[in-house]
Amino acid sequence: MGVVGLIVRLRFAMWRTAMSRSPLHLVSSIVGALAALGVLTLLGPGLVLLAGQPVRITALTVPLFAVITLMWGVLSLIATGVDSILDPARFAVLPLRASELARGLLAATCTGIPALMLAGLALAQTASWLGHPPAVPAALLAGVLGLLTAILFSRAVTSALAAVMTTRAGRVLGAVVVSLVTLLPLGLNLLLTTGSLAADLSSFDATRSATVASWTPVGWAWALPFDVATGRWGAAAVHMALALLLIAVLWVVWVRRLDRTLTSPLTSAGGQRIGHGRLLPAVLGTSPTATVAARRIRAWYRDSRLVGIALRTAVLPVFFVAQAVLTGMPGLAGVGVVTLAVFAGLTLMNDLAFDGPAWWLHVAVGVRGWEDRLGRALASAVVFGPVVLLTYAVSVAIGVIGRPVPWLTVIVVAFLASLGLAVAVGAVLPGTAPRTGGNPFAATSGGAAQGCLTAIVSFVGPVVLTLPVAVVAAVTAGSQPGRWLTLALGTAYGLGLLALGVILGGRRLDRRSPEVLGQLAHAQL
Amino acid sequence: MTEVGPGDPALELRGLVKEFRGRRVVHALTLAVPRGSLFGLVGPNGAGKTTTLSMATGLLRPDGGTARVLGHDVWADPAAAKAAMGVAPDGMRLFEQLSGRELLLYVGALRRMPVDVTAARAAELLAVLDLAEDASTVVADYSAGMVKKISLAAALIHAPRLLVLDEPFEAVDPVSGQTIRTILRRYVASGGTVVMSSHVMELVEGLCDRVAVIAGGRVLAEDTIGGLTRGGSLHDRFLELVGATDSAGKGLTWLG
User: Fold this and answer.
1) Tens-digit pLDDT profile for residues A293-321
2) A364–B94: do the CB atoms touch at under 8 Å?
3) Residue B118 falls within a domain, yes or no?
4) What does the pLDDT look like over A386-400, one tens digit per residue?
5) Closest partner residue to B137 among A273, A287, A368, by Cβ?
6) Would you call A281 an interface residue with chain B, using a CB distance cutoff of 8 Å?
7) Cα dist. A174→A33, A76, A78, B55 in Å?
8) Same domain, A325 and A420
9) B251 falls within a domain
10) Are A4 and A104 in contact (CB under 8 A)?
11) Quick check: ipTM above 0.85?
């Protein structure tokens, strides 16, 4: 008990320090708490209302919570390291047994906002079975077992994956797998838009999906009240045994991994050798700008933190195009490619944060601000320009973009404007990035883990900057010379914005480089 | 650009002040490093050595005072000052996705050196510093000592006239340490200037020409090694200057 209490208290102490030292932590904690509260107020009452419904509808809790448990594991992969306050490796020098530490870490996790939210949902789940009194204790038990399953599942998955992540090749591989897994919701969305979902309560029957979900590992625990309410005591016994067994297995897996972490905390990567890299200098030249660009281009395939982002950005358009094809809405593909262009441009927003304190080299050498800015913009253009253009070309070829030239105008302007915006704002608010070699999953997009201001700027900025051209492109769409003239003028306008971004951002770096370096010292979480 | 006279010190700090969160850590620090000297900066932990060197190299903006490198004001004319010096800070990360060789080529390109010159110097530096075998390994996989050596190489590649090194010998093995010592002595003999911080007194005593003792953000003493130690050891003189008391002698009796 002593160790458990100690670790929980340690967690709160470190949390408090982190929040009092950086407003970013405070803001993100508040936003997180509000988001959790939002989910609770959104789902909670709905769950409680299920109490008045027949079993075939109340059974909805089983598939719902099975999916929540599954998503818990998936999301923890993305969020791992966000709460790295209690990194087990830090306990390596203390005389602690893995099982003791595991109990302490489990207790600390349970006092966190996400776990409290899940516990609230589990309670609501119990309330939704109030209409079937025998099932209520079963629902309560299911809530406890389900909560444990979700938390241990995420812990076991992340710690097992962390083992793969000790080598750089493993990290890249892991980033690939995880980014594809996080795209799952998009795939689900695709399925939902194609199939028509019957939402008529009178004919609605969740029994079948509940039965299916109850026989998946994530559904074992949550199936208990459903089994009891339908009087299938045998199934209930089997489900409970399986749920307990799963918890035991997850516990053992996690404790084993912890044991390994405690005895070999130094995750040595071993010498990774790389090629000479003569291609990029030959293509781009050897000016400081080109050199910065070449380094950032290399980072997009060498740095596991960026590989995931690049991959997601590259796979995203496939969904847009597929959705446009399936729904037959011509505007959707165009909007999809424009969104891709904006995302691709905005990835530059926290580019400095990915360099982190290592950026001192640019300051010490005296790299001019505009060279730094232009080099990074060039790198993003080289990496994402082809992706954007290819998606556009494919969309046009399969006929989902109705008016190719006006859309191309908007896409080009959106890309250039976002690049310009990102290089200018990125010099003032360098944002945050996951630590090098630390955790390759966190900070999924440019705006995710950053302050609210950056998020607003990245949301509003591209729209405001692109809208005038979009209006002109729509107006001139009817005339052949007008279309092309708009494309030419739009491109010039976009290049102008990029130049402005490079100059303004560069000037800021020239004047305030030591201060930016100070910001970067805390940029990696 | 300011007129640079041959008599200017290699590094001249005048009245440097730095405050963190209202707490003053460097108090109007003044120091002149003559050209062609190997200058040691010693002081206890938290004395302000790294802060001072950061302000001298353009990495940290001082709250007051000036820093001049070979006559160029670091904060008024940073480009000229930074072109004249090579810097290897302590504990600052490098671009870890680059290999050792790539890092040197990167620095060379940023300093607008011709590619063939950079490549030749990089190869030579890697060989001399015993990094040739790991030239193609990414810096992320380097050990602490190797990181020190590649930082030194990156600071040397453009043949600067002033070299500012923060703890250059920390974590470096004795063989490489001897190599670095030889490099630094030869560099100084050919007219270069080195400013290095360290808390290993024996090292500074054996290597440096002049030494400044810093504690609490102030210069306590600054002289040639001989002038400062006056026959005794730098170690004893240092303890005397910073006013160390034998606090470990009385307590900790339970440790045996």
Assistant:
1) 999 988 887 777 787 777 777 777 777 77
2) no
3) yes
4) 989 988 998 888 877
5) A273
6) yes
7) 29, 14, 11, 41
8) yes
9) no
10) yes
11) yes
